[in-house]
Specification:
The complex is a heterodimer of chains A (about 450) and B (about 450). Chain A has about 450 residues and is an alpha/beta fold. Chain A contains 15 helices and 20 strands. Classes of the chains: A alpha/beta (about 450), B alpha/beta (about 450). The structure holds flavin-adenine dinucleotide (FAD), flavin mononucleotide and iron/sulfur cluster (3 copies).
């Protein structure tokens, strides 16, 4: 049994699984039920001066048979009176002293910041998270992502908070910015203890073509919202990886986390804790059981004694393209015992890659028509024999010498394990583009005359 | 791998696997089809109340061991049940997809995927949760699913469990009765091994429990009550019933359960001379033996049932499968005699029309007959435990929640209590009894 507990800026949490500031942390009753289900911490729905919300508020992107691959919202911060939230927070902390209670805040002026920080500290918040990320509504009022996107403004506000802060302060970053490392470094310089990311991504999920109004529809208009859910995970992971390289303090990872594996990936890329919103909005607090169990088993399998041992494990391997080994090379291999003969790999390679997958039995004219430019003569003619295969279909053949190792065929193949990528190095030694730059050999023949001339002149 | 390995050359080895193990991709695709219902109707239809949406969700997230834990927590025989449960009338029968007119989730196959792969990854998956030893010991009579499940739960609770099985091969009908295309005897035995490994469990095969006066290799009810802190009765049902009609005795006439046992575990059983077999009965055992014989290549297999298919107690999905296997169904016929030639060989069954259509009698030609009209009750042994009562159908009377009999030390479950249902019902009884025994023993 691995030790799942974490230490986040000196605050102990029973596990790394926290609820993100959002509807699942709207009230004390909800947070209590979440803690009962096993969540280690909760970032309360952002507090500030209560707002008025519109309806409808959410839009979703369904993909194929998957509901809510992405979720978008135009909801603002809490719409409940501050006093009510504070009373409930105190009550939660009293009954769940071991769970981590994080107050998420968003206000405007220095006095407001001072007042609210003191108030949430007074009710026993373990940590404070500054919501500099909300990309709709609040930013029009100069708050949320309007702050997160301006490192100087961010520094000023963090400075105000630090004047009265007695608990560690997390700055929640917005992804709606050109370079995420700028606000991360600004947070560091202004004395924040941690960052969390990502908040939602500016989005319009669709347009109602009858009304000619973007979704979600509010009467006869709509506004851009914030996008989250499984669809944003790759974006969040990337921004996390970038921040992990410049931010030496704890990070709380957020964005599309739905299960233990997602969580483990975020932790490997530098998250000490992870926060979840959409997956809980979709399926409920109950999903945490699988997250705890799955992470535990995973750590045990890898011989990692505690969840802390996983944090940041993949960060050094996230590198600039220029450092990648150009001599590392893989080629596609099709397992003739598994292939069902659907030819999806063929069309993907023909139209989407390098025309090196062949279907046996074509004469040269047919090959030419199909789009081949190289005509190997030794294509093996293998009928599909796999169970469930298409009768009479032929097994495609990869012309290894032409295969660029893009692995598109592997990605499209519907039968797991049929296409594998086999290592076939171009040369034993490692050579990167940066090595070529250093050696002055970073010109590939076949380019522009002007470039060749400029380089030759150098 | 099992302590009990079966010899080669048994007929059941010739039969395939009706619903093979899913590959990972197949399992994940099917798991993702499940909508992860809240208050899911499928759970209510599982006799052991497995949290089905949770275990399926865990398959979807690749948390296979977690999925198996969720299954085993409620049903230690989840691996067998995955394959033998008639899911069409249990969990999957109430999956929300049915109402939508779409294929229900293949719950049994997903359960098989999770249990098989989890145990392959970690054979000690369950024993990690074992409680410290309590020093209490419980005797279990019979080694069918009811007793095996009870013993497993008791062992995890820290007790010592001693199972007495009169046959040489353990497992009851789960080993000896299940249609081979669902579960092979060896798989059932391997599962028993898994359960025996959960804690302090001893299995004594070839030891019958008798009402009184134990002989060699026997132990009496009184001895068990004397020596153990509690006793669980899981003796199942008795031998096949017969009709008491002419020609019934002698070669060529079998009890269906007896015949299935021989198909599964007796390498000496030979059916090559059977060209036409009459199966008497319309229950699931009748359909099973008919399907097995047909699949094993008997050219003509027909069931003789006294009423119509519409009111048969055998499951419709099983009968449909039987018809596809080539089994014929003769409805509205009551057997009145087995006809033998001068040499004593079976040549047919005399039947009477019961439809009221007045068709009169006829002889249905065949060279072997299998009686599948139910199993008898083992009432004598049950009654040997003071306080244990039977109902008018010979079933042991228990409290449903606790599996308690009229004797506070004696519990019972499985077919001997419900008159013959499924493995999953026996597993649930075993679990309830174990929970109550633990509650009782730990209370003092
Ligand atoms: C042909 C057939 C097919 C079936 N198919 C299915 C199916 O597909 N799916 C399903 O879920 N269920 C099926 N069942 C039902 C299922 O097998 C039973 O419900 C289940 O095995 C009952 O378990 P049990 O532990 O109560 O009894 P049993 O499995 O009958 O086990 C009782 C054990 O007790 C032993 N015993 C009896 N008396 C004594 C004694 N005095 N001393 C010591 N030991 C004793 C017996 O030898 C036996 O091993 C089938 C049943 C039959 C007959
Ligand atoms: C309906 C909704 C309301 C949200 N409200 C807040 C909020 O008040 N404060 C905040 O910091 N983030 C808010 N978020 C953003 C989430 O905390 C989280 O950063 C984002 O949803 C990404 O995580 P996910 O992919 O797990 O949903 C909200 C998200 C949603 C969907
Ligand atoms: S996509 Fe996969 S299954 Fe289809 S033809 Fe190619 S290798 Fe075979
Ligand atoms: S034990 Fe049987 S009824 Fe219960 S969920 Fe599993 S397959 Fe369905
Ligand atoms: S009813 Fe069907 S869809 Fe719903 S949880 Fe059960 S198996 Fe899944």
């Amino acid at each position: 049994m691995a030790d799942l507990s974490i230490d986040f800026c000196g605050v102990k949490s029973p596990n790394p699984f926290w609820l993100a500031s959002a509807p699942p942390t709207n009230s004390g009753d909800q947070v209590k039920r979440a803690f009962d289900a096993g969540w280690g911490g909760a970032v309360w729905k952002t507090l500030g001066n209560p707002i008025v919300n519109v309806s409808s508020r959410f839009g979703a992107v369904d993909y194929g048979n998957t509901k809510m691959m992405g979720l978008n919202n135009i909801e603002l911060i809490t719409d409940r009176p501050l006093e009510v939230n504070l009373r409930e927070m105190a009550d939660v902390k009293k009954h769940y002293p071991k769970n981590t209670l994080i107050a998420s805040l968003m206000v405007d002026t220095k006095d407001e910041w001072h007042e609210i920080v003191k108030k949430v500290q007074g009710v026993g918040s373990d940590l404070i998270e500054l919501n500099f990320g909300c990309p709709h509504g609040m930013c029009e009022r100069g708050m949320g992502s309007a702050v997160g996107a301006e490192p100087e403004v961010l520094k000023t506000i963090v400075g105000w908070v630090m004047e009265v802060a007695e608990v560690p302060v997390i700055v929640k970053l917005t992804p709606n910015i050109g370079d995420i490392t700028e606000p991360a470094i600004a947070a560091l310089e202004s004395g924040a203890s941690a960052v969390s990311l990502i908040n939602t991504i500016k989005s319009i999920v669709g347009v109602d073509l009858d009304l000619m109004v973007p979704r979600p529809v509010v009467g006869n208009a709509s506004s851009n919202g914030g996008y989250c859910g499984p669809a944003v995970k790759p974006i969040a992971l990337h921004l996390l990886g970038q921040v992990a390289h410049v931010f030496p303090k704890p990070i709380s990872g957020i964005g599309g986390i739905s299960n233990w594996r997602d969580a483990a990936e975020f932790m490997a890329l530098g998250s000490t804790s992870v926060q979840v919103c959409t997956a809980v909005m979709h399926y409920g607090y109950r999903i945490v059981e699988d997250m705890i169990e799955g992470l535990n088993d995973f750590l045990d399998d890898k011989g990692i004694a505690s969840s802390r041992g996983l944090v940041g494990k993949a960060v050094p391997q996230y590198q600039n393209w220029g450092n990648l080994d150009l001599n590392y090379h893989v080629v596609a291999d099709i397992d003739p015992d598994k292939c069902i003969g659907c030819q999806l790999c063929f069309v993907a390679c023909m139209d989407g890659s390098h025309q090196c997958i062949h279907i046996p039995g074509m004469d040269d004219a047919a090959k030419k028509k199909a789009g081949h430019v190289v005509f190997p003569t030794d294509i093996p003619d293998r009928p599909v024999t796999a169970e469930g295969g298409t009768p009479g279909a032929r097994i495609p053949w990869v012309h290894e010498e032409e295969c660029v190792g893009c692995n598109l065929c592997q990605l499209v193949c519907p039968v797991e394990g049929t296409v594998t990528m086999r290592e076939k190095r171009k040369a034993p030694e490692k050579e990167t583009w940066n090595d070529r730059i250093n050696a002055g050999t970073d010109v590939v023949p076949g380019g522009l005359d002007a470039t060749a001339k400029a380089r030759g002149a150098k | 791998m099992s302590d009990y390995s079966l010899p080669d050359g048994r007929l059941e080895e010739q039969l395939g696997d009706k619903a093979p193990l899913y590959s990972r991709a197949e399992a994940v695709a099917e798991a993702n089809r499940c909508i992860y219902c809240v208050d899911a109707p499928c759970i209510a239809k599982c006799p052991t109340s497995i949290d089905i949406p949770t275990f399926i969700h865990k398959i979807a997230t690749d948390n296979v061991r977690g999925a198996a834990r969720t299954i085993f927590e409620e049903n230690l025989l989840g691996a067998s049940c995955a394959r033998v449960c008639p899911v069409e009338v249990l969990c999957a029968g109430d999956c929300v997809y049915n109402q939508w007119g779409r294929e229900p989730i293949a719950i049994g196959r997903l359960q098989r995927y999770a249990t098989t792969n989890a145990l392959a990854q970690d054979a000690a998956l369950l024993s990690k949760t074992k409680a410290p030893s309590t020093g209490k010991k419980i005797a279990l009579v019979g080694s069918g699913p009811a007793s095996i499940a009870a013993a497993g739960h008791l062992a995890l609770d820290g007790h010592r469990a001693v199972i007495f099985e009169k046959k040489a091969i353990p497992g009851g009908l789960n080993t000896l009765g299940i249609a081979p295309y669902k579960l092979k005897a060896q798989d059932a035995l391997d599962e028993i091994d898994m359960v025996l490994g959960l804690g302090d469990i001893e299995l004594r095969t070839g030891v019958g429990v008798v009402a009184a006066d134990p002989g060699e290799g026997e132990v009496s009810a009184a001895q068990l009550l004397e020596e153990y802190d509690a006793v669980f009765i899981g003796i199942g049902l008795g031998p096949d019933n017969y009709l008491g009609i002419d020609g019934e005795d002698g070669a060529g006439v079998y009890g269906a359960v007896e015949m299935i046992e021989r198909i599964k575990v007796d390498p000496g059983f030979d059916i090559s001379s059977m060209k036409s077999v009459a199966v008497l009965g319309g229950g699931n055992t009748a359909i099973d033996i008919a399907r097995e014989l047909a699949q094993l290549g008997v050219p003509d297999v027909f069931m003789v049932y006294r009423k119509t298919a519409a009111v048969m107690s055998g499951y419709r999905h099983e009968m449909d499968g039987g018809l596809k296997d080539g089994v014929r169904l003769v409805e509205n016929r009551q057997p009145i005699a087995i006809v033998r030639d001068l040499g004593g060989e079976v040549v047919g069954v005399d039947v009477e029309d019961t439809s009221g259509g007045g068709a009169g009698g006829e002889t249905l030609a065949c060279d072997a007959v299998a009686f599948a009209i139910g199993q008898s009750r083992l009432t004598v042994l049950a009654k040997a435990f003071p306080g244990v009562e039977l109902d008018d159908k010979g079933r042991v009377v228990v409290d449903d929640e606790t599996a308690k009999t009229g004797n506070t030390k004696v519990f019972a479950g499985g077919d001997c209590v419900n008159g013959g249902k499924e493995v999953v019902n026996a597993a649930e009884h075993g679990k309830r009894a174990a929970r109550e025994i633990t509650r009782m023993l730990n209370a003092g």
